[in-house]
Amino acid sequence: MEESFAELTPEERYAKRLEQEKPVLDALLAWANETISKTAPKSALGKALYYLLEQWPYLVRYLEDGRLELSNNRAERSIKPFVMGRNYVLFPFMCY
Length: 96
What we know:
The protein has 96 residues and is an all-alpha fold. Helix content is 68%, strand content 0%. It contains four helices and no strands.
């Protein structure tokens, strides 16, 4: 859905997110809350559900503002050259 919202203004993107994405996320949250009580906490699903519920406020933050992006890939790519350069300076014997 986010790909189709890329060309919209932030206000339009905000409205579309609330209209189309929020119901999906609400359904996911309801399912997670229902399922976690039936799942063993140490199982893979139990750990995943616990992580999902712990991270929920951060996951839905992008719904609050149309200017926010769902992914942080752009920020990660922008700092990659500096991080890689730092590694070359700090650990030159490991870079070959």
